[in-house]
Design a protein that fits this description.
Elements (H helix, E strand, L loop, with lengths): L2 H9 L13 E7 L5 E9 L2 E12 L2 E6 L5 E10 L2 E13 L2 E5 L4 E8 L6 E10 L3 E11 L20
Antiparallel strand pairs: 1-2, 2-3, 3-4, 4-5, 5-6, 6-7, 6-8, 8-9, 9-10
């Protein structure tokens, strides 16, 4: 039912309509001098590759995540630590259209739980779910991955300008 909407969001590198098990993926995080953290997640569904990208920053004392190629979907996030793992829950949504910020009703809620895998020193477990009132779970990715830290050769900004600063 949500496939057409997820297909539009896939073209903007926000979410996607594909599903599967054992889907290989990579995550590349890049910190910028301004304190933001950008991430590009690449999922390989056989012949189809899907990308999710975002930039997180602290704004007004709160964590804000801006998603998509142009960072046009804004999500306010509440952080907590539960049993030694990180928990994130979305608190608000807004859409940026050019310089105009449009607050959205709570159409969906993002739930993210992340923790170190007790079975492996450099493995991280993640479980991301998006739920919608009346529909239930509409998107999910979960799994474990091995991470490594590498020095970056990148010298520019890893993200586009924030909406309203274009």
């Amino acid at each position: 039912m949500l496939r057409p909407l997820l297909s539009v969001m896939a073209r903007r590198n926000v979410l996607f309509p594909e599903y599967g098990h054992g889907v290989p993926f990579t995550v590349v995080n890049s910190a910028a001098a301004d304190g933001t953290l950008s991430a590009v997640r690449t999922f390989a569904f056989g012949e189809r590759v899907r990308i999710m990208e975002d930039t997180m920053e602290v704004a007004g004392g709160a964590l804000v995540d801006r998603l998509g190629k142009r960072r046009g979907l804004e999500v306010g996030i509440r952080l907590s630590v539960i049993d030694g793992g990180l928990r994130m829950r979305s608190t608000r949504l807004a859409l940026w259209i050019g310089r105009l910020r449009l607050p959205l009703p709570r159409l969906a809620v993002m739930h993210l739980d992340e923790r170190m895998d007790p079975a492996g020193a450099a493995r991280q477990c993640v479980d991301v779910r998006i739920t919608a009132p009346l529909l239930g779970e509409v998107f999910r990715y979960a799994g474990a991955f091995t991470y490594e830290r590498r020095p970056s050769a990148f010298t520019g900004s890893p993200r586009p300008p924030r909406p309203g600063q274009e």
